[in-house]
Predict the structure.
Amino acid sequence: MTGLDTNVLIRFLTQDDDAQAKIATNYIGENCSEEKPAYVCHVVLCELVWVLESNYQQAKETIVLLIEELLQISQLEIMESESVWRALSDFKKSNADFADHLVANTNLANGCSTTVTFDKKAGKQPLSTLLK
């Protein structure tokens, strides 16, 4: 199994740099399959959301759809995909960052009753507790 970095996924998804987009697309098409998927970790997903928001000015709805599509590509194995699905669901309804929801849902899946935070937006979410 091979891990994908954020920049490879960005080039694959945006096709904004002809040379790198071609390399990324060819690599995924030729080297990643259902039997031998590429691995996408949580850090890459969080970076992906941040880059799409800040550099590409993509709307939350577009980003959610994009990650939902990534979760369904058989050539990719998304780290703890059930936590990602739940984080996306929470992210849709919230003003907290995707990363905050992913942290809280991953913690929940690993036995945590809450995630404590100083982040006021995250602290208002059901899986988190604001420290004061």
About this structure: Residues 2-79 form one domain.
